Amino acid sequence: MHRHKAASAGKPRDDVYRAGFACFVGRPNAGKSTLTNAIIGQKIAITSNKPQTTRHVIRGILHRPDAQLVLVDTPGLHRPRTLLGQRLNDLVHEVWSEVDVIGVCFPADEPVGRGDRFIASEVGALKAKVIAVVTKVDLVDQTTLAQRLLDVAELYDFAEIVPVSSVSGHQVEILTDVMVKHMPESPQLYPDDVLTDEPEQMLIAELIREAALEGVRDELPHSMAVLVEEMLVEGKLTRIFADLYVERDSQKSIVIGTRGARLKDVGSRARAEIEKLLGRRVYLDLHVRVAKEWQRDPKQLRKLGF
Ligand SMILES: Nc1nc2c(ncn2[C@@H]2O[C@H](COP(=O)(O)OP(=O)(O)OP(=O)(O)O)[C@@H](O)[C@H]2O)c(=O)[nH]1
């Protein structure tokens, strides 16, 4: 038997450190993003687009003394009508097969429908624990909520059903506890200092944006966004990877300048400011991208503040 020492010693559950991956799924508008923010937003939330151990995009990591909960993104699941739809669904299943907990979200203020049934039928037969989250409970009365909980319970044999409101914060803590409870015993998956918290990343993005706009505000008024993709702490040095998004190729040329001279200058000015902010030495890696393809991705657009 490969039992953990702590478990065989009969220690209380509280002593066990748990860590793992979870994702929220559900039809569009079910409240997945808001819930993710409610869980990680007020805590020491850290985000990154460069997953270290898995292929999926990490939305945030919740650190607790007893657990680490890594929330990952999945693209929406659709009834596959096209090859692309099929490929997307394959990707969804790939992510699902790698997570420990799947939270299927059902908005309390809308009846359970065909889309919900489809998703519920797809989440079975996985190693993941599947829990139901009834979202937006602040929008309905007790009778409606009770009916919704019954309808959801009939869809699938969920491990748990948790009603929450991301807006009022009602039961968000409890949902987190439930998710942690279903995480495997595991050492910490991500060290605390590999990634950083979002507010800090926003400030850094703003400093880069300031530096990039200097002298060219007339040509590039609002059409630029900066996204800090990754921050890595390596000894005394912090490596920061950031993307500058512009709307057109012509704007990209302006930002980069002749043979990259302007971008280099932007980088060194931004770096000086970031070093002041962090009080640490910084290596800054800037990439200029045209946002065209990003405009079709609402999540990315939201992240960029458009
Ligand atoms: N009143 C209330 N509104 C909520 C709550 N959670 C989410 N909403 C609202 O519901 C809408 C959809 O929420 P999102 O979090 O964007 O939903 P989503 O599932 O991520 O949507 P997609 O990205 O389209 O899949 C937004 O307008 C939210 O403000 C809640 O707990 N209470």
Automatic annotation (TrEMBL):
Residues 73-76 are annotated as: G3. Residues 164-166 are annotated as: G5. Residues 216-292 form the KH type-2 domain. It is a peripheral membrane protein. It is found in: Cytoplasm; Cell membrane. It comes from the Bacteria. Residues 26-33 are annotated as: G1. Residues 18-185 form the Era-type G domain. InterPro entries: G_ERA_dom (IPR030388), GTP-bd (IPR006073), GTPase_Era-like (IPR005662), KH_dom-like_a/b (IPR015946), KH_dom_type_2 (IPR004044), KH_sf_prok-type (IPR009019), P-loop_NTPase (IPR027417), Small_GTP-bd (IPR005225). The keyword RNA-binding applies. Keywords: Cell membrane, Cytoplasm, GTP-binding, Membrane, Nucleotide-binding, Ribosome biogenesis, RNA-binding, rRNA-binding. GTP binds at residues 26-33, 73-77, 135-138. It holds the Pfam family KH_2. Monomer. An essential GTPase that binds both GDP and GTP, with rapid nucleotide exchange. Plays a role in 16S rRNA processing and 30S ribosomal subunit biogenesis and possibly also in cell cycle regulation and energy metabolism. HAMAP family: GTPase_Era. Belongs to the TRAFAC class TrmE-Era-EngA-EngB-Septin-like GTPase superfamily. Era GTPase family. This is GTPase Era.
